[in-house]
Each structure stands twice: as structure tokens, then as C-alpha cells.
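hey so i finally got around to running the thing on that chain from the lab meeting. sorry it took forever, my laptop kept dying and i had to restart like 3 times. anyway pasting the input first so we r on the same page abt which one it is
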Amino acid sequence: MNREPSFVHQFLRTFSLPDQDGQTTLEPAETTSCDTLHIGNEEYPRYTNEFWTAKQRQASRLQEISYRACFKPQLPRFFISLLTRPGEVVYDPFTGRGTTTVEAALLGRQVISNDINPLSRILTEPRLNLPEYEDIRARLYSIPDSADISCEIDLSMFYHPDTLRALCSIRSYLLEKEKTGDSDATDMWIRMVGTNRLSGHSPGFFSVYTLPPNQAVTPERQITINRERNQVPPYRNVREIILKKSRHLLKGIEQKQRDNLLRAADSAIFLTRDARDTPEIPDNYVSLTVTSPPFLDIVQYTSDNWLRCWFNGLDADEIGKKITITRKLTDWEAVMGGVFRELYRITKPGGYVAFEVGEVRNRSVRLDEHVIPLGTAAGFTCIAVIINQQDFTKTANIWGVQNMSAGTNTNRIVLFHKKSPDRQDHPYKAGQRVRQNSSS
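ok and heres what got predicted. didnt touch it at all, straight out
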């Protein structure tokens, strides 16, 4: 596999998105838009195209775990397939729901996952070591409901009393198994799915109608919603909801994918650290990092997760103090500068970092233009800015994330390279013509 920067440039310039039958529909010259980004005295190529799309290939159902501020699995798949070989190490320092980690494992790569929020590991690790559906069912129905178990906080505005009794019984069982160190793959799976089904806007969740699952509300706000909608929490069958979601997530997983996931699980490293300090990762070890950092106060990660923290016996306030949420660009840059220095340490020569950022504050701040100097100061070469442009999504509107123009939704990825000692990354002009490679 040729992964040299010159090949990457050519691949991006001549890229044409295949249709569902694997055939390209346009001539390469008619697809990728190439221009130059000027930062100070430096020029960087910028490629705009529809490099991936949800229509191109349906992602694995394993990726359908709700989490705010996450990219589609097609994004990491694009870079993992282009820039790594099976068995190489893929890393995400801001794992979130685990999109990069799960996608890399499905593709037969080794994985390292880090997120200072411990919920990330709870949502990610179980999808590498899949239990059998019948084991999930048997385990759920082996846990008795108990009226004597305390839920610790008032959640009556979200749940029917019988729903809450079942939920708290399962929660108590899972926390006790974790405390004694006896949790197995089935327990971890139930915990993950239960965390994912706590609240939402359909009967597929445990709660009465509330906001979508990635937008948790406070108890006070839920009381207001109930009053405005003249609603009371209906009974939900917690065990059957977990089973239904489990059946959906596990459907269509091929044996080769299961084998890849299990191999990844055997060697996986899961960290709960500040991304600037990951001593467990050796120097020059990672082939590819694909990540998206917390943006400038767009998404309040902590307030979204208080209910999930309750279910998992975690202190949401303590977690929130550790997570970078800043309104000042200079503070954000200082944190990300430290992240890039650590990424440079752990990236192997010839390795890459795909750093997904966005436009924030009504498009007045383009974080890619601030990220490039941070990466190059750490020692990386900036290969290009890659803009994936496709149809606008409703959820991005809800979050207030503004895009390039009305009707489009974009991902902006800055691609960095750590050059090998015996090679030089030559400057590459966006307007430079290259010979088309038939293999791309």
C-alpha cells in the first residue's frame, strides 16, 4: 500500500465517489474542487468533495449508539482504509461514543481509545466483545426486581414506578458486579444498551416523551415538558427494550467482523486520561489518529450526561471539571497544542493524524485555520484540509452548527503527516497537475 503524501494528494484530487454498485458516476476531473488555504506565509491545499456518504455503504448497526457531537462512521472508515493496513494501530484521543474505535476494529486494526469521560469506555468496549443474544436475554431475566432498592434520586418525572423499579434493580446488579470485579461481556453489554436507552422521544426508550437521547434535560425541565404535554410516564418494559435494541445492534454482523472485533478487544488499550498526557502509549506507536476534539462551547458534554452518570454510579460534577469546555479560542488553542505534542510523540514515522474540526460561532471561526499552526508547531507536516460536503442534517441544525452554505453539511478534516527520518515532505500546491493513477 502506497501511503506517501504524494499518493494521498493524487488520490484526493482524482477521487470520485462510487455508487452503491461500486462504479464511479463522474469523471475524476469533475468531482474534487481544489484550492489553496493561506495561513501567514504558508499555503496548504484544500480539497472539497463528497468523499463519503451514508448512501455509499450502510454502516454497521453496531455504530447506532446515540451520542451528541459525533461524526458518522464513514469518516473514520475513509481514512482507516486509505492510510492503514490490517493489524496497524488506530487511535482516538477523544473517543466519545467510540465511532473510530469500533470502525477500526471492524476493519481488522488494533485500537487505542481515550476519553476523559468514563462513559466513553462504557459505550465503546462492549462492542468489541459481543455476547450472544440468548445470553443477554437469560441474564436480564435472571435479575429480580426489588422494591427495596433505592434509586438515590427522584426520577418520577421520567419513569413509571414499575419501570423505575426494574431499571434500578438492573442498575444495582450491574454496579455490584463491577464493584466485585465480576462483570463479564454480557453484563457490560447490558450496561451499554441500558445507558443508551435511558431517555428519548419514542417508546423505544425507558422514559416518558422527552428530548432526543443525546439531549438530556434536567428533572425540572422534564416536569415542565410533562405539564405542557399533559403527559405522565407510561410503563415501559425495560428488559424487552434492551433486548430489542440488542437484536438491532447485533443484526448482520458477519463472522469475519466478529473475529476482527475480538482480536481488537484482546489487544485494545482503553484510557481515561487528559489527551495531553497518555504515558501508557509507547513512542512512535500509532499509525493513524482519527478524532474530533471538543469544540468551542458548542456542545455541553457534561449537562447531557447527568442521567447516564447516575445509571453508571459516576459523579457527573467531578467528570465535568475535567472536560475541556472553553469559550476563549486562545485557551482552546493552548489545550490542543498540548494534544498535538502528545500525538507527535506517539505517532510512528510515516503515520497520519486526521483531525476533524468545524466552523463555529456563525461561521466566524474556522477551527481548521487555527489547528494547522498547532500541528506544524508540534512537528507534523500539514498535508491538506479535506472538506466533505453533503446534504444538510437536521441534528446539526438542532446543535446550532453552521455549515458552508444553506443546504449543505460539511466535515472539515486537517490531515497531518509525521515524516520518516529518511524522507522529506515536499510542499504541494493545490493547483499543481498530477498524473492520474489508475489504481485510485
